[in-house]
């Protein structure tokens, strides 16, 4: 088995790993090696619904989302990769006074940070998203700059751009251990040999806990299966149909080619790495459709898949650098928001590595916050 050397080893070839690696090599960091045990984007990234937004309740998530939206807007010209960005907006449908009050507060915060979100009435919500019914709807929140794009294309764009700037990508290579000498990381061992390095960046998504354990760092990330269905073509869909989310049930849908992509959370799902699809969630999905968008019930499902959310105890990300071991950085646990925050987090982790001050202070997202009993909950999650 060969030994190679690297300045930095990035573990994980999804949107986080490729964004971080690309930002590092673009900043002139030499000898960056990205290790992926399967194909690029083969983990949760390719299973994401592709939504991109800045409509959050937590100021950090708003800033990361808005910064990423700007980057997605420039993506094609910067990397040459078309990511199928549709800025059709995100529409949150609200059915309880508590939801309305919470979103009104979020919209005020978003507006103060430059995000053009607004509260709208049910009639305007229906004009934007004609498949819904407004029965029992009190209000909605809409931000026109949000939207959706193609996750795999983002990964391939980052990877190709990073390779042009000197990144080495090792696919079908599993990390088996991380060697240390006292406080310092000295190497990463893999199924294809050893990589001598002093810095490891964990971007392994749902698989991050095991990577952290290799250096004694607790990354409290649990995998949770989420399913998505794709429908047959739908006649007369408005081209600007927003990503529509019934916040009470978590049912969501957006255009996918001539049809729709739709999904919702399943409260019966238990943590685990199983990504087989099943139909146990369909009765609840049908019930949510019946209530909020009965037209969806007539559509035939033509496909679908299951993937893993990476959940933390407060449904917010883990971003930072470990204090117990030298130069172990991490960006994981995004609880469903990772794809859309990938560009901004790549920037932040690059700055942490280089000792620069990032554009936003992410210290509240350190993995140590749970031991310190300082969770940071995100309310606007699906």
Explain what the structure shows:
By secondary structure, the chain is an alpha/beta fold. It has two domains: 2-45 and 150-219 and 312-370, FAD/NAD(P)-binding domain; 89-143 and 221-309, 2-Layer Sandwich (D-Amino Acid Oxidase, Chain A, domain 2). Helices cover 27% and strands 25% of the residues. It is built from eight helices and 20 strands. It has helices spanning 15-26, 59-79, 97-112, 122-128, 151-164, 208-213, 282-292, 338-354; strands spanning 3-5, 8-11, 32-35, 51-52, 90-94, 118-120, 139-143, 147-148, 168-170, 175-181, 184-190, 193-196, 200-202, 222-231, 243-246, 251-256, 259-263, 301-311, 318-321, 328-332. Strands 6-7-5-15-16-17-14-18 form an eight-stranded mixed sheet, sandwiched between helices. It has a six-stranded mixed sheet with strand order 9-3-2-13-20-19. Strand 19 (318-321) and strand 20 (328-332) form a beta hairpin. The longest helix is centred in the N-terminal third of the chain and has 21 residues, at 59-79. The protein is globular, with a radius of gyration of 21 Å. The mean pLDDT is 95. Pfam families: DAO (PF01266). Keywords: Oxidoreductase. GO terms for molecular function: oxidoreductase activity.
């Amino acid at each position: 088995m060969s030994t190679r050397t690297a300045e930095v080893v990035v573990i994980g070839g999804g949107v986080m790993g490729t964004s971080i690696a690309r930002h590092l090599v673009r900043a002139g960091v030499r000898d960056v090696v990205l290790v992926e045990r399967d194909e690029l984007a083969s983990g949760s990234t390719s299973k994401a619904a592709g939504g991109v937004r800045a409509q959050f309740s937590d100021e950090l998530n708003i800033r990361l989302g808005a910064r990423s939206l700007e980057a997605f807007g420039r993506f094609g010209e910067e990397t040459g990769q078309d990511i199928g960005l549709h800025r059709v907006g995100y529409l949150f449908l609200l059915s309880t006074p508590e939801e309305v009050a919470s979103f009104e507060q979020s919209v005020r915060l978003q507006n103060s940070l430059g995000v053009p979100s607004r509260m709208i009435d049910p009639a305007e919500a229906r004009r934007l998203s004609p498949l819904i019914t407004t029965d029992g709807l009190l209000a909605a929140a809409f931000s026109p700059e949000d939207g959706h794009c193609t996750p795999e294309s983002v990964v391939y764009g980052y990877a190709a751009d990073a390779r042009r700037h000197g990144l080495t990508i090792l696919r079908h290579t599993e990390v088996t251990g991380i060697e240390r000498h006292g406080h310092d990381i000295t190497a990463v061992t893999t199924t294809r040999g050893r990589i001598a390095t002093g810095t490891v960046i964990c971007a392994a998504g749902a698989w991050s806990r095991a990577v952290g354990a290799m250096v004694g760092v607790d990354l409290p990330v649990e995998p949770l299966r989420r399913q998505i269905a794709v429908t047959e073509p739908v006649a007369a869909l408005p081209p600007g149909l927003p990503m529509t989310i019934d916040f009470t049930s978590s049912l969501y849908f957006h255009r996918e080619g001539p049809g729709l992509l739709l999904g919702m959370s399943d409260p019966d799902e238990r943590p685990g790495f199983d990504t087989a699809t099943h139909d146990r969630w369909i009765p609840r999905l049908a019930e949510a459709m019946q209530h909020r968008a009965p037209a969806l019930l007539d559509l035939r499902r033509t496909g679908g898949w299951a993937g893993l959310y990476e959940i933390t105890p407060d449904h917010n990300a883990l971003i930072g650098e470990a204090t117990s071991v030298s130069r172990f950085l991490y960006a994981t646990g995004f609880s469903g928001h990772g794809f859309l925050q990938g560009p901004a987090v790549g920037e932040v982790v690059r700055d942490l590595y280089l000792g620069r001050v990032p554009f936003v202070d992410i210290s509240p997202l350190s993995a140590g916050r749970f031991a310190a009993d300082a969770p940071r909950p995100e309310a606007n999650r699906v």
